[in-house]
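Tutorial handout. Part one gives the primary structure; part two gives the three-dimensional structure as tokens.
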Amino acid sequence: MKKMERLKSDRDFQRIYKNGNSFANKYLIVFFMKNKMNINRVGFVTTKKLGNSVKRNKYKRRLKESYRLNSNKLKKGYDMIFLFRKNIPELEYKDINSALNHIISISGLKKGRK
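Part two.
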């Protein structure tokens, strides 16, 4: 993922949490809002309630890879934050990929949707 496609500043995260839309499924929550660019910017967040740093980083790596492989299916011009829910069971990559595909389809971020 390119540097300009990442959300890094706390101000951006707080703006999206406060003013953006959100959708959730069993494992993930997505917060998003339109930006004034022709690219998507993304942030990935885990909570300490998910486990130790090894487990949290493993989930974030898997989610980032799933996003990378599915990013061509998304509409352009959005800032998005993907957040894992707390107290989820041990997840495999296919579960994370399925949850990501589900959440982008129900949120309307998928290309071809209104």
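Part three, for discussion. The beta strands are 21-24, 28-34, 41-45, 78-84. The radius of gyration is 13 Å.
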